[in-house]
Design a protein that fits this description.
The protein has about 550 residues and is an alpha/beta fold. The protein has 18 helices and 25 strands.
């Protein structure tokens, strides 16, 4: 272990969505392969305390950590690329920072002083960064937004101060920029990058590494030009074009010698990174021997980032099974009684993901029904499990008005309902009503469940107990379980504390599984996840018999 923690500060310029999260995670993977312990921290400039109640259309996926923190989706990238499991310390927003400072002010902790951005906000940011980095060799700190944005300025000022307060070898500044290609002119334009670095330098910072995003690899001549006008050494400018898979990024950056810069600047060991496992992942991803078609039936399919962890988990399962997973994104609002068989006809398997609200629910129910009737693999996750329960209640149990109280509060058969009193893992109790704060009334984070012996679930996990991450408010109503089981439903896993339904299966079906938790949050490209892995394996197997 290093005597002093090293800090890599990652910023972005020109435009948003350059891929700072993937770049940060990839740098983490390179350093971890050298034998260092790595953590990654995300600082978001928006004023929401957390992204838990933000619309998926605006924010994308909400990632959930082991300790139940709702975070930015970039933390999913971090966990997929490095072995560290993130916690609430790994993601904080401007809202959370300002809120904590204001609480201190109300309590009189500033002794009547005028509370200002500098030093009080910046000191709180620095405190959060240092606290999250304790015990690690290297902390990679990603700042959301774009350099020059007014919202990000307190964060930029904080890392500037840390750069002065820490030893020179403890800090490295990595800046992502865009080098656009103008087709009409037939050339790459470096001016946006020059202006971005100029803005960065005006804030008192100089990048040690520039990672230039582009449609294709930037030639050496252009990199030298960028280095000259940005006052950087030639070997400090790196090209990062659009690649066939994000898991190629660590290998691509390493091939350009980024480890040499990291090693020299931060006084690290000169041993070479071992990226062979990533090379294997890339090879299996790009050159699969099989393929399978999965219909992904959700309500946010028009926005790619809304289901990022799920699509990546399917990708991981494809890598493990040497299979290209063709994901057919279907908006559940487009499915109805007249067209559902036609829309799902080409499916080798069906997946229904999580979600909130009643929009598109009936289309999801029809997708579950189709999978059950034609006996193709069905994977229902969170809401997808509840959807399957509603279909079984209506189709097999004769409960025509069966529904969830989330969608139809006054339905006759409330097969899915809100738990009114919940005991947390720490023993505390909270009362839930339909009017409770949305951000504080969910089962969140890793929780223990017990698997029923002899079920498909227990065979896949090869364990009696599991820990999986949750993010939901509604549960399967236990009053109906006897009726469901008489209809062929198997309750294959129950929660540790409340004996709630965690997993279901259907007898005499080749592969029909629903889980109340979110297994996609713990899937990784090198290992996948047992549920996703077997889901794709069975889909491939059955597709060959068609």
């Amino acid at each position: 272990m290093l005597k002093d923690t090293r800090f890599i500060f990652v910023t972005g310029g020109v435009v948003s969505s350059l891929g700072k999260g993937i770049a940060s995670a990839s740098i983490g993977a390179i350093l971890e392969s050298k034998g260092y312990s790595v953590t990654v921290i995300k600082m978001d400039p928006y004023f929401n305390v957390d992204p838990g109640t933000m619309s998926p259309f605006q924010h994308g996926e909400v990632f959930v950590t082991e300790d139940g923190t709702e975070t930015d989706l970039d933390l999913g990238h971090y966990e997929r690329f490095i072995n560290h499991k993130c916690t609430r310390k790994n993601n904080f927003t401007a809202g959370k920072i300002y809120y904590s400072v204001l609480k201190k002010e109300r309590k009189g902790e500033y002794l009547g002083k005028t509370v200002q951005v500098i030093p009080h906000i910046t000191d709180q940011i620095k405190k959060k960064i240092v606290s999250a980095s304790k015990g690690f060799d290297i902390a990679i700190v990603e700042i959301g937004g774009t350099v020059g944005d007014i919202e990000s300025q307190p964060f930029i000022e904080s890392i500037r101060q840390l750069g002065l307060e820490l030893k020179s070898y403890q800090t490295l500044f990595l800046h992502l920029t865009l080098v656009p290609y103008l087709k009409n002119a037939g050339e790459l334009k470096t001016k946006p990058t020059q202006h971005s670095v100029k803005e960065f330098r005006s804030l008192g910072l100089q990048p040690d590494i520039l990672v230039c995003r582009s449609d294709f690899e930037i030639p050496q001549e252009s990199k030298e030009k960028i280095a000259l006008f940005c006052s950087m050494p030639k070997n400090g400018v790196f090209s990062l074009p659009n690649l066939d898979t994000i898991y190629e990024v660590p290998v691509f950056l390493d091939n350009q010698g980024i480890d040499k810069i990291l090693t020299k600047k931060m006084h690290l060991e000169k041993n070479k990174p071992n990226l062979n496992p990533w090379k294997k992942v890339v090879k299996r991803k790009l050159f699969p021997n099989k393929q399978v078609n999965v219909s992904f039936v959700g309500k946010y399919v028009d926005l790619k980032d809304a289901y990022f962890s799920l699509t990546e988990a399917l990708d991981h399962a494809g890598i493990i099974n040497d299979t290209k997973v063709n994901i057919n994104l279907i908006n559940s609002e487009d499915i109805n009684v007249k067209n559902y068989k036609r829309m799902l006809k080409k499916s080798d398997a069906v997946l229904v993901p999580g979600g909130f609200g009643d929009r598109g629910i009936e289309g999801m129910i029809l997708a579950a029904r189709y999978s059950r009737e034609v006996k193709i693999p069905y994977f229902g996750i969170c809401l997808g499990l509840q959807i399957a329960i509603i279909d079984i209640a209506r189709s097999l149990c004769g409960l025509r008005d069966a529904n969830s109280t989330e969608f139809k509060p006054r339905c006759k058969d409330k097969v899915i309902s809100l738990i009114t009193e919940w005991q947390n893992n720490d023993g505390s109790k909270e009362v839930r009503t339909k009017n409770s704060n949305l951000g504080g009334t969910m089962r969140l984070g890793s929780q223990k469940a017990h698997l029923l012996k002899g079920t498909k679930a227990s065979n896949l996990y090869k364990s009696k107990t599991i820990f999986e991450r949750h993010r939901h408010r509604y549960e399967v109503n236990p009053d109906y379980l006897d009726l469901f089981e008489q209809s062929g439903l198997v309750i294959s896993a129950r929660s540790d504390i409340h004996n709630l339904v965690e997993m279901i299966e259907i007898k005499d079906h080749p592969w029909f599984i629903g889980c109340q938790f979110h297994p996609e949050f713990t899937s990784k490209p090198k290992t996948g996840h047992p549920l996703f892995n077997d889901f794709i394996k069975k889909a491939v197997e059955l597709s060959k018999k068609k």
